[in-house]
Amino acid sequence: MATASVSFKSREDHRKQLELEEARKAGLAPAELDEDGKEINPHIPQYMSSAPWYLNAQRPSLKHQRKWKSDPNYTKSWYDRGAKIYQAEKYRKGACENCGAMTHDKKSCMERPRKNGAKFTNMHIAPDEKVESFELDYDGKRDRWNGYDTSTYSRVIEQYEAREEARRKYLKEQQLKKLEEKNGKNEEEEASSEEEEDEDKVDEAKVDESKQMDFAKVEKRVRTTGGGSTGTVRNLRIREDTAKYLLNLDVNSAYYDPKTRSMREDPMPDMDPNEKFYSGDNQNRLSGQALEFKQLTVHSHEAFEKGQDIHMQAAPSQAELLHRNYKIIKEKLKSQTKDTIVEKYGNAASDEALPRELLLGQSEREIEYDRTGRIIKGQDMSLPKSKYEEDIFINNHTSVWGSWWKDHQWGYKCCHQTVRNSYCTGSAGIEAAEAVNDLMRANIARKEASDDKPVQQEEKRLATWGTEVPEDLVLDKKLLADALKKEDERKKEERDERKRKYNINWNDEVTAEDMEAYRMKKIHHDDPMKDFLN
User: Beta strand pairing status for 135-136 and 74-75?
Assistant: First the structure.
């Protein structure tokens, strides 16, 4: 809040001022106006809006936050280059001895030294230059385009246009020359006249579109504004091709970054890969030299973490050499492992002929099956083996965990235990568990069969907050008088909080007399006699 000056305020005035500021911040009260009649933002903090005491501000204002010290000598203008102010007809005393201008001396003259200066010949007196002297402000000193004549840029445009026209003309001549050579070699006497005319024609449209002929050419720009030399592609794509962001117009499809012109994900993942020509920029990262560079970088990081003195950026040749040696050693170890396995188990892909029984699946052994396909006679059925340990019994159990199920719990079949690490108790444990269950059922049945009735408690006649007063309500006058005294004491405590005690026992049981006392003592704002109560 913008304040004019700091003056003493009472507690009530200070409270009103705070309420007014809160109302202005909430938009309930109009904003404060400054000296010029402009509204002051109520959310501006006080340390910014309060004016210093030495300004003696009589009204609220924010002028002390604005720049009030300004030097009129500062300017952003620039020298008027080449301007002449006066042309003399004869030499003047104190002028330049070479050209005759009064604005400089002979040592500072920029003209060609004459054989006989203007001082002696009194001819061809040069006009006086316009000399200006002014101080630049902060922005004027640092403005690199201050004084730049925009009309001179037309020369740069003309140079570029002339260069582009010459280049286009040269490319057209080269294209015509190639077409003539091609037509001269492919001419045949048996060809029809129409075919000869078609071959002699030159497609002017293709020749004029010389920019697309070298769309993949990389040009170097040396000493750019960003620093260093950069390579840029003239045309990133052929204009006839569909842009990446038009392949799939779904909003939730692959994200296209317009700044880098990249789309990393596949815009059409459900399309046949043989039909689509673009699968996202990530496809290029998983193929070619990009994948090799990634493997080299990962190998350098892993080797450095394991204690090798290797760094990809500091010594790239060393990193690449170590990576090559690593791949050679890895291939040797793989071949040694393969030879060991082949030597131990044999090679099924070798050139040796397999036995006829294995090749055709036939043998002389007789095997008898039943209707369900199970082997009855001739070959023992081999049970499938698992990679986990089987038939291992712990804690004196004769069955495995999970062989018994009851009441949504797994357990052991031998002792009906549902705790996995429990000790087996055998049939005695089963009998004890059944006895416990029978006893529990008997106790439950006995409790249900008992005719014990609950103790009847005296119901208190309570009133509910917010309910209407029933018509048949009968109140006890003595209890009502006590309730009125309690209500008076409660209101006294509300007026003076110093009488409130530390330990207060609240009773939330409200009787009809308490409710009637509250209604009698309650102040009705619509009552015209409310100011005469109490």
Answer: parallel
The 10s digit of each residue's pLDDT in 300-339 is 999 999 988 888 888 899 999 999 999 999 999 999 999 9
Residue 154's CB: how many other CB atoms inside 10 A? 9
50 three-state secondary structure: coil
- In this prediction, residue 407 carries a pLDDT of 85
pLDDT in tens, 9-24: 789 999 998 999 999 9
At residue 503, does pLDDT exceed 70?
no
User: How far does Cα 292 stand from its chain's mean position?
Assistant: 30
Instruction: Give the pLDDT band of residue 287 (cuts 50, 70, 90).
Output: confident
Question: Hey, what are 508's tokens?
Answer: 């939330």
* 472: CB partners within 8 A, 6+ apart: none
Say if residues 74 and 136 touch (Cβ distance below 8 Å): yes
Q: What is the mean pLDDT of the chain?
A: 79
Is it the case that residue 36 has pLDDT exceeding 70? yes
- Asked whether the beta carbons of 252 and 229 are under 8 A apart, the reply is no
Q: Which residues contact 147 (CB under 8 A, 6 or more apart)?
A: 78, 79, 81
Token pair of 431 as six digits: 């009998």
Rounded mean pLDDT, 348-373 = 70
Strand locations in 73-190 (E):
74-75, 84-86, 128-129, 135-136
Name which of 77, 84, 70, 83 is nearest 133 in CA terms: 77
Asked if residue 463 lies in contact with residue 514, where contact means CB atoms within 8 angstroms, the answer is yes
Tell me how far apart the alpha carbons of residues 195 and 131 are, in angstroms, rounded to a whole number.
76
pLDDT, position 167: 94
State how far the Cα of 510 lies from the Cα of 200, in Å rounded to an integer: 112
Residue 25 burial by Cβ neighbours in a 10 Å radius (0-12, 13-18, 19+): middle
Give the pLDDT of residue 193: 54
pLDDT tens by residue, 383-407 = 666 777 777 888 889 888 888 888 8
Q: How far apart are CA 336 and CA 47, in angstroms?
A: 80
What is the three-class DSSP state of 84? strand
Amino acid 268 reads M
How far apart, in whole angstroms, are the C-alpha atoms of residue 39 and residue 36? Answer: 9
Q: Considering just the CA atoms, what is the radius of gyration of the chain in Å?
A: 52
| Tokens linked to 183 | 């037509």
By the 10 Å C-beta count (0-12 exposed, 13-18 middle, 19+ buried), 418 is classed as middle
Closest CA to 484 of 475, 497, 496: 475
CA distance 534 to 529: 11
